Structure formats: structure tokens, C-alpha cells
Amino acid sequence: MAVVQDIQDYGFAAKGCEFRQIEEKLWEIKIRAPTGGYRFFYGMIAPGHIHVLHSYKKQGQKVPIQELKVARQRLREVLSHEK
Question: Is 77 inside a domain boundary?
Fold first, then answer.
């Protein structure tokens, strides 16, 4: 996907995607593509240091609870290894 390269090149100013903070270190990227929408959850561990935790094809407006649970669990695992 070209939008992934745009994110790398332009960060929050990348076209075709939205960034939002879910809670503390958990963030979401919504990507619009011709084949549909995608959501990526990532952990902002430190400035310039992120971990992609989970992604899925967007099915509706709201984040399904199970998808959010997976992202939270993976963030906990990443943070426990960072110590």
C-alpha cells in the first residue's frame, strides 16, 4: 500500500489515513483504500519508537471489542519486555 510509505515519509500528515490516540500509549491508524478500510493499532513506546500490535479490515464505524482486546494485550506484552 502506498499509504504505508506516505506514513513513513510524512508521519501524521500522510494522506488517506487518520491517526488517533485510544489511550495512553495505544494509538490507531485508519487507512482508506480502494479495497476498503483498514485499522492498525500500534503502541507509541518512545518518540520515534512504535510497535504495530494488530490490524484488521474495517467492517463498521466502531472498533469491535475483541479487536481492541487483542491490541491491549499485545501492548502489555511489548511494554513488559521493554523494562
Answer: yes
